[in-house]
# Entry
Amino acid sequence: MASKQVPYRVRFAPSPTGHMHLGSARTALYDYLIAKKTGGQFILRIEDTDFKRYTPGAEEELINGLRWLGIDYDEGPDIGGPYGPYRQSERKDIYLEHAERLINEGKAYYCFCTPERLTRMREEQQKRKEPPHYDGTCRNIPLEEARERIKVGEKFVFRFKTPKEGTTTVTDLLRGEITVENKNLDDYILVKSDGWALYHLAAMVDDNLMKITHVIRGSEWLPSLPLHAMIVRAFGWVEPVWVHLSIFLKPSGKGKMSKRESADLLKDGHSIFVKDLQNLGYTPEGVVNWVSLMGWSYDDHTEFFTLDDLVDKFSLEHLNPSPAAINFSKLDHFNGLHIRNFTNEELALRIAPYFLKAGYEVDQGSLIKIAPIIKERITTLDEAVGMAGFFFKEEIAYNSQDLIGKGLDVEQTRKILGDSFEILSGLENLNLALAETQLREYVEKSGLSAGQIFGVLRVAVTGQKVSPPLFESMEIIGKEKVIERIKNALEMLS
RNA sequence: GCCCCCAUCGUCUAGUGGCCCAGGACGUGGCCCUCUCAAGGCCAAAACAGGGAUUCGAAUUCCCUUGGGGGCACCA
# Structure
């Protein structure tokens, strides 16, 4: 009997404040993988208590992004679940109750300091070269007095009463024990004066209520981990396993990606936003494979994974804590790999939207025929349009200069075109084997190279200097159209 | 400034004291294949940040230095 796997309950808890980026995608992926692997649940929770930063449409983009990547969640705002609601904006009272509980137990206190006073305080601390921290003005106000002030209508926040002495030790799965001196920790605000909980409180309360066993998140949260552990401990709850994933650095490896740089990236056909990646012709398979390997590895020799492979092979043990620079050329590599792995039917389905977007009228039947000859020539789906658009054009446009092959002059080119026209016209159809045999015989007799002759025909038939294989292409285009295009080319040169 | 984290080829990484004068992948260069472009195959260049300590033995353990990153909000 195999040892029993404990099901993990994990959550992806983004705030709807912008576009879904790679870091989020990876966190969600790992959440999904480990939940699936252990037979547990993956929960989507929206952390939307900061209304100032709320971005309309962000939640929808998040959900679409997850869906596109194939990362399904078991509980979430749109599908519900036994521990809802899954939007923090619908859980205000829950947080307030918990904050009150901390107050009653002497583990938190009401603070009446105004934001203005706090900024002034911080400025002075900076002037004195002190680390910014709350000075504790309200820390020792007797509870009775504080309640009176609240009754009178004074504005207040809840602050956590952080011990001033001793140390706090928390264990991160990837890094081991992390110990900090409590005097370096602040009396963090738990609930704002508008009554809304801050992340520190809300997330810990929700994680407990939603029975989260493993908190998997970015390591930008590491500095507040001791606080989070303190809050969990103050409530007397058992801590989840803390897992802080490595940070993604920009391709240069120098710092996190900024807004400005993200925009520049897009010009090169890359992006850190899931939505852009989709538009740029990347496949969910490629993105998932690529992102899974940033900060995690399986073994020495396996790197090609489908989502199902990953469910099978993923484990928290092989996570790497060091920051990772984003490497887009590797994305291209994986994307190409997965495109080549598609069946022709699948590829046809995937590239169709890109043709449509470019204004082409395409049919599935033709795309299936085209799929095998472009498969190994494209790294992104949208490249199919540039590579194979000529199949669907009534008339192809190109520069007549491009017709004239390397080492050839106009006369020679015309002769090639004319002879080819004769040869192909004489054929019953442009059956691949037949056409190629005939044309190769012609090459033999002509004394020219195959490259020269086929090059001329390539431009005449496809309008491109770079195209899928000539004979395969001609067969798909059909005799009539091929002959006509050769004739047009001939006329162009006269 | 303070706190925390990290440190193997350009990049992503394998490596948990001897199997490593360090393996794989991307990228780069070369060759082969070839109707273009790819794909594919083969080959090559390319790294344990530095210094101590522990040990018979260190990429692997400990300490220091250096470098890099993250965080210091009534944001998440």
About this structure: The CA atoms of residues 103 and 179 of chain A lie 26 Å apart. The mean pLDDT of chain A is 94. The radius of gyration of chain A is 32 Å. DSSP finds 20 helices and eleven strands in chain A.
